[in-house]
Design a protein that fits this description.
Length: about 80
């Protein structure tokens, strides 16, 4: 997440969402956490708290974490 410049408050919330994805104990919980993260990015991009490239980078961070978690859950 270091490649995305965020205010301290926004970064704190983004890290909480990322942790929810990483700690998800089921596919459903992981997908819900991913959806929350996507809505978070859309919201902060809409209010102008991120530049366009920053929003895309943050989406990628969350998407990569979600894909990794889903793969690990599928292998259980």
């Amino acid at each position: 997440m270091e490649e995305v410049l965020l205010s301290p408050k926004v970064e704190r919330e983004a890290r909480k969402l990322l942790a929810q994805i990483i700690r998800a104990d089921s596919v459903i919980v992981a997908v819900k956490a991913g959806a929350l993260a996507e809505g978070f990015v859309r919201g902060i991009a809409t209010v102008g708290a991120l530049r366009a490239g920053g929003a895309k980078n943050l989406y990628v961070v969350f998407e990569m974490a979600l894909e990794e978690r889903l793969k690990s859950l599928a292998s259980l």
